[in-house]
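Reopening this one. Same input as before:
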Amino acid sequence: MSDAWETDPRPVRILENRRLARATFWLSLQVEDDHPLPHRPGNILSLFVDVEGRRLRHPYTVSAADPESREIGILYRVVKGGAVTPTLSWLGKGNRISMAGCFSRPIPALIAPEATSVVGVCTGSGVGPLAGFIREALSTPGWTRPITLIGGFRAEEDIPLIEQLDTMAEDSRFQWFPSLSAPQHADYSGPTGRISDTLPDILPTLAGAHVHLVGNGGMISTIKTALLNAGMPPARLTTETYFNKAAAPDAAAVARLSGFYRGKV
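Same output, byte for byte:
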């Protein structure tokens, strides 16, 4: 390896590759070189995976990182017919792959200093980096800002990290809500519908909040447009889009949300 450790492929060994929810896996990697490990939740890295004789590169968002144990955790969703994730999901403990880079800013660095609270909104595996940020924030001495997490999923079996989120919610500074578009269990009593439908009931006001959106481009473009139209300062609204990056906002949802939150952001 050259001295350009920031961009050169680095050897990593798989410690765990476990399914947590339908098509959603937790990947734990041991970094096997001695170069710095500056990664934090929200940073982006590339993984190199050999697929049918070709080495493919794909970006993933860091959900957890520990420079002392030199471990990195990634929550990812297996995309049917995808180029990398079907092969990645079959790799097990001890398999070696490579990673490179530490791109983008971590979530803690995105939060506006003037924000009085933090709201994380995500779909699918976007819950991973937000959960990592929340764990880091709650363990930071002097952190007082309340944090709310809202995750959009299809059904109960699609929600990963439930145990971890429930444990963190024992801290009065944090609360989380799933929003299910097609719940399957008769005893489910939480928010039902897309996040653009349930957000006003979960959070009647976003005054002073920093909102960080992660996941589906359709959700992000709709909520971002609505909140900006409602008057939210751009510095208190950040995003990371996983897919559907060119998705247009839902005009009806934008009108409904912007009208509801006008004067409440």
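So the earlier flakiness isn't reproducible anymore. For the record, The mean pLDDT is 96.
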